[in-house]
Write a structure and sequence with these properties.
Pfam family, one: MaoC_dehydratas
InterPro entries: HotDog_dom_sf (IPR029069), MaoC-like_dom (IPR002539), NodN-like (IPR039375)
Number of strands: 8
Family: Belongs to the enoyl-CoA hydratase/isomerase family.
Largest sheet: 6 strands, antiparallel
Distance between the termini: 41 Å
Strand content: 35-45%
Shape: elongated
Protein name: MaoC family dehydratase
Order of helices and strands: EHEEHHHHHEEEEE
Radius of gyration: 17 Å
Length: 163
């Protein structure tokens, strides 16, 4: 079993770095999976503070034990926000001046993430298209929960790279 990394110990180097010209040929490329990350109550509480969403199913572990999930759960948008650090762990492009998160399509929160669970992201580059001054990619991103068949989040993540 792999020891989950904390935010502080996660790799800062992406697993795959390609040149911009190579990016244009990568539609269909499987990017693999990130390392597992444990979802802690501290992380959930910090997200609650940042977003003013202190609903008890997230922030009250004692009450949440008797709630619909049997434990406190991460906010769906907290889990979705992990796409960014996970993305940086998987992939990068050299030979560009600017990299931006362009947006999301078809986001679904398909399973709750209980505090103490471990999650990771798997990704596939679904599409690559040229845009003025660069390229846009659509990544099929799935955030999995260790030991569960059903994922936490399924989304299409859009990123742009400008030369």
């Amino acid at each position: 079993m792999t020891t989950p990394r904390t935010a502080e110990s996660r790799s800062t180097e992406p697993r795959l770095v390609v040149d911009f010209d190579k990016l244009l040929t990568m539609a269909g490329a499987d990017l693999g999976a990130t390392d597992w990350m444990e979802i802690t109550q501290d992380r959930v509480n910090l997200f609650a503070d940042a977003t003013d969403d202190h609903q008890w199913i997230h922030t009250d572990p004692e009450r949440a034990k008797d709630g619909p999930f049997g434990a406190p759960i991460a906010h769906g948008f907290l889990t979705l926000s992990l796409v960014i650090p996970f993305w940086g762990e998987l992939f990068d492009v050299d030979g560009v001046t600017t990299k931006v998160n362009y947006g999301l399509d078809k986001v679904r929160f398909t399973s709750p993430v209980k505090v103490g669970s471990k999650v990771r992201m798997v990704g596939t580059i679904a599409e690559v298209s040229e845009v003025k001054g660069g390229a846009q990619i659509k990544v099929n991103a799935t955030i999995e929960i260790e030991g569960q068949e059903r994922p936490a989040v399924v989304a299409e993540f859009l990123a742009r790279f400008y030369k």
